[in-house]
Specification:
Blueprint (H helix, E strand, L loop, with lengths): L9 H17 L13 E4 L2 E5 L5 E5 H6 L9 E3 L8 E2 L5 E3 L2 E6 L1 E2 L8 E6 L5 E6 L13 E3 L2 E5 L4 E6 L5 E6 L9 E2 L4 E5 L4 E6 L5 E6 L9 E3 L2 E5 L4 E6 H5 L10 E4 L9 E3 L2 E5 L4 E6 L5 E6 L12 E3 L2 E8 L5 E8 L5 E6 L11 E2 L3 E5 L4 E6 L5 E6 L11
Antiparallel strand pairs: 1-2, 2-3, 3-4, 5-8, 6-7, 7-9, 9-10, 11-12, 12-13, 13-14, 15-16, 16-17, 17-18, 19-20, 20-21, 21-22, 23-24, 24-25, 25-26, 27-28, 28-29, 29-30, 31-32, 32-33, 33-34
Length: 407
Amino acid sequence: MIRSLSIGDPVRLRGLGLLLPTLLLTATACSQFVPGWGGAAVASGTVFTVGGNQKVLALNASARAKGEIFPAQGEWQYPVENDRKAGTSFTPPVVSGGMVYAPIHQLGGNPGGPGAVLALDAGNGSLRWRFDIPSGPSAQIVGPVVVAGGIAYIGASDHFVYALDANTGANKWQFRTNNKIWAGVALDGAGTAYIASLDHRVYAVDVTTGKEKWRHETGGAIASAPLFDNGRLYVGSADGFLYALDVSARSQKVEFPARGEWRYATGSWFWATPLLDSGTLYAGAVNGEVTALDAVTGKEQWRSRVGSIDAVVSSTPVLALGILGISARDGKDGADGKVFGLDVKTGQERWRYSTDPKGPVNSALASDGSVFYAYSMNQRLVALEANNGTSRWVCRTDQTGDKLCKG
């Protein structure tokens, strides 16, 4: 059923009240330090994250499970020196072509410093290149790097998306919107990049030239990347709707909704990019609801609330072993971090994990197919069995050198 939205819905306002102050703070050039919640990426048995020590880390999952002293085989930290910092991050690194691309919110961990992209060798952590957002201190990074076709795309709070040569970091082109960009870029594989902005719009841009093809405006800010599949673009907005846009109809500026287009409403902001699997969209909302929708029709298949009435879901669901992994922040103060394992067919809760000590889990989980990796604002990275939520290992990331992952 397509649900109507009441702008005054108290659940929506409560969820936004918990999440927005923190992110509004981090998206501006301010003098106050805010810890990151960068999340993790996993490739070939190695987990990559930007830790509480403000370093880019490569962790050998097998070595962490055995409790070996850091650095074990294949592990590294960048910068290498214990007294130097890369900076904080609010989104996971990306691993592509033997390189790790880390989006840094404030370079060097300096409050008010500029955002930057670090490109590191995935094997040894050596720096290949660095790109500083050229607008200076007002230009932090909140969203992820997206790498495809030899280009690394990054959006920033200076309203620009930058298209960088993935091998050298050279700026090939840049595209300006009318507000901050907190989202990653979506690509159709056929020459178009889709850019979402807090200015309420999604833009279609030529990947070669950076020239705009068309734009579509929603009723609210868009903080997460669109999802492209089979000629459709799925976009979550702060107006409380998840949109399915036909890119052909949008390019022709046909009045919305054109044939095959729809929008689904919940009582809150669809903050995160949905997950698409086998024709079903799985979307989390700031009011703590997770919904499964038919990707073609928008028809609701199931809807489930995670945690308490105060729970906030602001990250993309992750699927492994028939379990939908959901990260959340809970509690009246938003300090309780939770990871939920839902049955992908029914939405019923199969298990839950609570962070210890308390710390919200704002970033999406990573998975290697059988394990979920969750990063909490208590600065710990935890590996959870996907089938039952049992903790396999925990790494405390606010230490350096051989003290990393201890305590």
